Amino acid sequence: MRLQDKVSIITGAGRGIGADTAIRFAKEGAIVIVTDINESDVNETVEKITSDGGTAIGLVSNVAERDQVDQLIQTVIDKYDRLDVVINNAGITADSTLVKMEEAQWDRVIDVNLKGVFNVSQAAAKIMKAQNSGVILNASSVVGLYGNFGQTNYAATKWGIIGMTKTWAKELGKNNIRVNAVAPGFIATPMTEKMPENVLDMMKKKSVLGDMGRTEDIANAYLFLASDEARFITGTVLSVDGGVVL
């Protein structure tokens, strides 16, 4: 068990990458706190974990709201008295080209994808500093590294996450806290299932491996970075993209 009894918060864990990461962590012995904005999605992920013999609790929380984040962290500390891993996976899109993007689209994506990561990480870091240990993992994207048509807001948040990751790695290293980011490429999720076949084919062709990634590919990256196998890795961005940017 690579994460035996590690208390792990995973945001956006109701569906897709977050849900599969929560399930993967539980199989490796982690105590998983499944959190998302949708209660039914949270309950579904928790049920999948516990029915397979894993340990998980579900907590509904909006990462963009600081009071809800503080309550989330406090609930975890009250129950387990420690916090070992945080994965900032929650994120949204609201795409539009620069000249057409509305202020509300910009604000909504910034609030969840950037402010949300800040809220959770700041609250978690205070606990981790006190216990002199911890791992913070952030969801970036190849879009944050290279941009993407119609995603000014999303690209800005994912690039900002890289900056925060490297800054926090420098600030928190002396407290035995590692901070890393994962940058997925085109990943098959429930959202991509609704896309036209020609768009999916285009995504596959962009990868030198000729395929889209799977949610478990990202979950495995998070697992490695959270485990003691990555004890000397911090401040890095791990691209899991099938060579899409080569």
TrEMBL record:
Domain Ketoreductase: 6-190
EC number: 1.1.1.100
Keywords: Fatty acid biosynthesis, Fatty acid metabolism, Lipid biosynthesis, Lipid metabolism, NADP, Oxidoreductase
Active site: 154
EC class: oxidoreductase
Pathway as given in its UniProt record: Lipid metabolism; fatty acid biosynthesis
Residue sites binding NADP(+) per the record: 12-15, 62-63, 89, 154-158, 187
Pfam families tied to this protein: adh_short_C2 (PF13561)
GO MF assignments: 3-oxoacyl-[acyl-carrier-protein] reductase (NADPH) activity; NAD binding
GO biological process: fatty acid biosynthetic process
Function (record text): Catalyzes the NADPH-dependent reduction of beta-ketoacyl-ACP substrates to beta-hydroxyacyl-ACP products, the first reductive step in the elongation cycle of fatty acid biosynthesis.
Subunit structure: Homotetramer.
Matches recorded under NCBIfam families: 3oxo_ACP_reduc, PRK07231.1, PRK12826.1-2
Annotated protein name in UniProt: 3-oxoacyl-[acyl-carrier-protein] reductase
Species: Paraliobacillus quinghaiensis
